[in-house]
Q: What sequence folds into this?
């Protein structure tokens, strides 16, 4: 096992044993190759470099209490990658090829899989890029599919540490009828200016509104939004939101725990009625939010704050949801949904 302090990993790049690649050319996929070097050689004219012809995924592998290694819902990631690739007009690997490469990259880098109980995991980053030389704005005809991994801790640092966030009214993450519901790098690039500005102002995340009217909640820059009121799990419905696999899983768990699930438009003003609010995604599962500031503009001095629960701890219902998801991932409780793929 790698000589790392598993409790202090954070969410950052670390060199591992190998990465995997598979090339698409002349209408077919080639063999899977393993590389100890994670540097690539591609054309300077590759579509990925000029027109963001690329999409990616994120999922995790866990070492369980029973000693078994689990991947959490990788088939859902394979399908979502295919959906993203189809939108930008490039070839995507089959679900079977995707799963094969997930399992193989974990096995080849097993020394970097954190031990059970460390609250750490192995993050997998499947990445699909257009690589053939081109000048025109068009879909790439040749692609490179990469399967990358790294040991990670919590994305934001402290596990379940509530965060302080701000609504962005003067910047959008996605356009109406645009790319927001697909996992494309361009969406994250579009969020960087407002995120960097918000971070300088002391906020840990940015909450974006619907790009058409700025009247309804969409999602955070790197995760979905959810709220809890009474016994209901509430999450926005919008064509510009990325369909989060974690959010989908939390909805299922909420129903299993006897909660009502509401996926619908969520007006900004409804924030005042919520008991708990959180971010949810692969990197964090859940990050509780204790305060959201609503401003006319990010740098405005005019602030309408919305407060939720405690600044120091996760709300009780969010914690219950989190513990069931993590319990399934860690093999501490039975997986009643058949979500985990064993390595």
A:
């Amino acid at each position: 096992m790698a000589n790392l302090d598993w409790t202090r990993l954070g969410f950052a790049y670390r060199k591992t044993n190998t990465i995997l690649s598979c090339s698409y050319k002349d209408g077919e996929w080639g063999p899977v190759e393993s590389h100890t070097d994670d540097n690539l050689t591609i054309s300077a004219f590759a579509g990925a470099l000029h027109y963001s012809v690329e999409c990616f995924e994120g999922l995790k592998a866990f070492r369980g209490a029973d000693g078994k290694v689990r991947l959490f819902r990788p088939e859902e990631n394979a399908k979502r990658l295919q959906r993203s690739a189809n939108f930008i007009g490039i070839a995507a690997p089959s679900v079977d090829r995707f799963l094969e490469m997930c399992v193989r990259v974990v096995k080849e880098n097993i020394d970097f899989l954190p031990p059970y109980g460390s609250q750490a995991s192995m993050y997998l980053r499947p990445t699909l890029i257009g690589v053939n030389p081109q000048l025109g704005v068009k879909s790439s005809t040749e692609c490179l599919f990469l399967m990358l991994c790294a040991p990670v801790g919590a994305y934001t640092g402290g596990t379940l540490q509530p965060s302080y966030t701000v609504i962005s009214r003067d910047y959008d993450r996605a356009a109406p009828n645009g790319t927001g519901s697909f996992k494309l790098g361009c969406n994250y690039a579009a969020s960087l200016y407002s995120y960097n500005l918000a971070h300088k102002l002391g906020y840990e995340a940015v909450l974006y509104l619907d790009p058409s009217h700025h009247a309804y909640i969409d999602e955070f820059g790197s995760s979905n939004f959810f709220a809890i009121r009474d016994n209901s799990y509430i999450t926005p419905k919008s064509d510009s939101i990325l369909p989060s696999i974690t959010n989908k899983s939390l909805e299922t768990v909420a129903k299993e725990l006897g909660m009502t699930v509401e996926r619908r438009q969520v007006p900004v003003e409804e924030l005042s009625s919520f008991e708990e609010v959180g971010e949810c995604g692969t990197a964090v599962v859940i990050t509780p939010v204790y305060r959201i500031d609503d401003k006319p503009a990010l740098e405005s001095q005019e602030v309408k704050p919305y407060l939720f629960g405690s600044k120091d701890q996760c709300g009780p219902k969010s914690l219950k949801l989190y513990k069931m998801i993590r319990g399934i991932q860690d093999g501490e409780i039975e997986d009643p949904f058949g979500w985990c793929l064993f390595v």
About this structure: The longest helix spans residues 185-200.
